[in-house]
Amino acid sequence: MSLFRKLLPSRLARSHVCASYRAPFSFFHSSPDTSIEVHSQEQEVVIALGSNVGDRLNNFNEALSQMKKSGIEITRHACLYETEPAYVTDQPLFLNSAVRAVTKLAPHELLSVLKKIEKEMGRTKGIRYGPRPIDLDILFYGKYRINSEILAVPHERIFERPFVMAPLVDLLGSDSENDTVICWHSFSKNGLFGAWEELGGESLIGKDGLRRVLPVGDRLWDWSKKTSVMGILNLTPDSFSDGGKFDSVGSAISRVKTMVSEGADIIDLGAQSTRPMATKISVEEELDRLIPVLEKILELPEIEGKMISIDTFYSEVASEAIKKGAHIVNDVSGGKLDSDMLRVVAGLNVPYITMHMRGDPSTMQNSENLKYDDVCKEVGDELYECVRAAELCGVPAWRMVLDPGIGFSKKTEDNLEILMGLKRFRSEIGRKSLGVSRAPLLIGPSRKRFLGDICGRSSAIERDAGTVAAVTSAVLGGANIVRVHNVRDNVDAVKLCDSMLDQVGRSC
């Protein structure tokens, strides 16, 4: 069933609020400088972003920063797309996205602010549809249709442009959350989901010059092409599986070389154990374990082209590791164990893996943290709240990676239900934000206790066969990244799963 059809007809029928709502506008003298004054509370708006000149991602970051300083409070971000140019095709590839925001600026005041940002960032008049360092367009302004000599809202060509419609739909949930969104749907005869489907919908992603990407370092990562394998390197004496095996720099470097040779795409460094009842160590001790190994890893020629993530819930550790050259922050707490984490990650401009966990490692398996009525729904809802908190701190959705936290605050049956229900887990998040639901999905079942309980393997290192089975289920269910100890065997499993998915056509 299409997302559009999931909207209750009775709710969509209420979209007459757009036409019947009398806009409290004051029209002044008609001229190119005509202004519209809105005498009301703040309005919800949608603004599209595009760039194909210079450092495109930095242009986005600068534009968002300037918007926030100008009275535009950003509340949601779409995914990030690299797209072929439209209309004038002899120019570089674009980055495109969109944001939802609230502002007290009147429509023409908002337009003036956006044009000022464009000009300050180096945009000149140039040719229509030609290259530009930044392009900022108002797609929607509250519930209003606006037509003046200098502004048309909704944007006049919105419904013919996949590079606009893809990020626009990302900003919505499959459940319409308010009358303003219902009004936006009414601007197209079949609703926004129907308009997107008429263009081709999700079948366009990865084709015809429309790639959904995540920025990592100086490159754009299209995670849909293959499932990525994240190799685990624990620099701890007390991790549940391999604690103490790699706590010297030499042994750690040797292990990294092996994982890379076996096909790891990402190396995940952890210097603090997060097993149940693990003893919490200080920032200083974690850094002392982590930084010498990280520095040596970054010197390895074979690490070229690989990604390095840092498994930490401390903002100071994350900040120092990224400054040294790591690429990704992997936070098992979703920002809940360090009040500065989300603000710090926002400033680092790196991908952020946010994981679901209730409590902390010492309390996560307490009876009160193991109560679920519907685990896929509740984990999806709780993880979405972590993402929302991160977004409001300035971490855009296009930098997010989701991890439902296999083995964290979960019973055996909960872990199995999540592994078997990844599509439903995504759909539960998609009810609130389609963009967030389309973020890369990481699953980490490796050698977890629930595999030992099921397979009768008390020793963690004996659980590799069960891990391969869990990874296989996860990849076929829609996982984009799998986090494992045994890289070699799981790389083989992932290759087979990817081949099967390519055979039938990937659905996500």
Automatic annotation (TrEMBL):
Gene3D superfamilies: 7,8-Dihydro-6-hydroxymethylpterin-pyrophosphokinase HPPK, Dihydropteroate synthase-like. The keyword Magnesium applies. GO terms for biological process: folic acid biosynthetic process; tetrahydrofolate biosynthetic process. Keywords: ATP-binding, Folate biosynthesis, Kinase, Magnesium, Metal-binding, Multifunctional enzyme, Nucleotide-binding, Transferase. It holds the Pfam family HPPK. The keyword Acetylation does not apply. Pathway: Cofactor biosynthesis; tetrahydrofolate biosynthesis; 7,8-dihydrofolate from 2-amino-4-hydroxy-6-hydroxymethyl-7,8-dihydropteridine diphosphate and 4-aminobenzoate: step 1/2; Cofactor biosynthesis; tetrahydrofolate biosynthesis; 2-amino-4-hydroxy-6-hydroxymethyl-7,8-dihydropteridine diphosphate from 7,8-dihydroneopterin triphosphate: step 4/4. Residues 227-495 form the Pterin-binding domain. Coiled coil: none annotated. InterPro entries: DHP_synth-like (IPR045031), DHP_synth_dom (IPR006390), Dihydropteroate_synth-like_sf (IPR011005), Hppk (IPR000550), Hppk_sf (IPR035907), Pterin-binding_dom (IPR000489). It catalyses: 6-hydroxymethyl-7,8-dihydropterin + ATP = (7,8-dihydropterin-6-yl)methyl diphosphate + AMP + H(+); (7,8-dihydropterin-6-yl)methyl diphosphate + 4-aminobenzoate = 7,8-dihydropteroate + diphosphate. Its cofactor is Mg(2+). In the C-terminal section; belongs to the DHPS family. This is 7, 8-Dihydro-6-hydroxymethylpterin-pyrophosphokinase, HPPK.
